[in-house]
Amino acid sequence: MRAVYFAWVRERIGKTDEELAPPESVVSVADLITWLSARDEGYAYAFENPDIIRTAIDQNHVQHDALIAGAREIAFFPPMTGG
Amino acid sequence: MRAVYFAWVRERIGKTDEELAPPESVVSVADLITWLSARDEGYAYAFENPDIIRTAIDQNHVQHDALIAGAREIAFFPPMTGG
Amino acid sequence: MPASPKIHIAIQQEDFDVAAQVAALTQGRTDIGAVVTFTGLCRDEAGTLSALELEHYPGMAEAEIARVVQDAQTRWPLMGVTAIHRYGKIAPGEQIVLVIATSSHRVAAFEAAEFLMDYLKSRAPFWKKDHRKDGAQGQWVDAREEDEKALGRWEG
Amino acid sequence: MPASPKIHIAIQQEDFDVAAQVAALTQGRTDIGAVVTFTGLCRDEAGTLSALELEHYPGMAEAEIARVVQDAQTRWPLMGVTAIHRYGKIAPGEQIVLVIATSSHRVAAFEAAEFLMDYLKSRAPFWKKDHRKDGAQGQWVDAREEDEKALGRWEG
User: Fold this and answer.
1) pTM here?
2) Ranges of residues in chain C whose predicted pLDDT is under 50
3) Which domains, ranges and CATH numbers included, belong to chain A?
4) What CA–CA distances, in Å, run from D65 to A69, D51, D59, D71, D118?
5) Is D125's CB within 8 Å of A79's CB?
6) Overall average pLDDT of the D62-73 stretch
């Protein structure tokens, strides 16, 4: 599964994207955030306030309780500020 | 006092404007409409449904109970259809 | 202190250039965040209309639009307002009316433009007559009840 | 039967020409009564901002805007919709975003344009970073609670 990061999530993690291979116990977006947060300080900082992190699976907005099974691309980003 | 007419009010009366010298008993816009309606068939037709006639005194919208004393220009027209 | 808003009001027979009017409000400025334009066009009513004829009350039309623009300025923080209304004969596809509102934020610009259009429709002294392709006598367009109702949202 | 609406969606680095975009929707047609445009410009924040930097999620940005445009078409009888959003570095006074909605009547065109802008603000994957004239590090713009609330009027 490919993870992509945008805006300050990208800056805090220090990369634009990466391949992820989470263990089977990671089933939801929320699980994935918890799992990533434990990796290092950058991830922990990016996800320090998980409630405000927005996520998309295969370019569709999803909530944190969405299941990640079958996802090809999962995106993490701050609240959008377009327009 | 100058009277000016627009749209189908103008067409029914058959003129764009005229000088009016109503008697002293004509004090309000409503009185003026009643007085004009008695003039001939064209006026009667123009004012047959007085409720829908809009009026302006010196280029400000007024209601039919407005007093005409001091008016230099009084306008009669149908509901507006601008824009 | 904010500069006073740039206001342009015109009642004219000739066509107008929307882009030039927008540029007149925005050029050389870096404080505007939102530009809303409304352009009203002459519809051919499924091919039945040959032209619209717009009559107006000279003097009062300008004065009434100026009053409504003034009112809009007290309701929203506007940086500029343009209101142009044509009169005379207008063919299908041609432009009839233009309203532009500029502000720092989008809600003010949108609401002011809608407010101005609602008032232009029902309070500015203009009257439309339909000319039909079948040659029948021109008909004065009836005022639409929805247009009168639309004013309700800005009152009270 | 009405022709299907003309839709143009673009995510691009280069500037856009509002007049050309309006012409693309209206030229040669005589059934459009109302054209509403919204143009979002880069403000200099009282002279403190040197540029905005706009990051986006390629692919999803286009897809998300297409979904919102589709939704607008089911809500209002639209004849055309244009939505253009720029990315990259944008200087004060420059254009950022354009929405155009055309319809036979003004209410549909106004509401659709507002709806599209409300969704672009809070649902399209774009992020703004301020670059300051004083050389301080760029700051990501915080989402405004009003923008999130603005969506409420279109729901339920």
Assistant:
1) 0.95
2) 1
3) 2-77 (3.10.20.30)
4) 26, 24, 10, 10, 11
5) no
6) 96
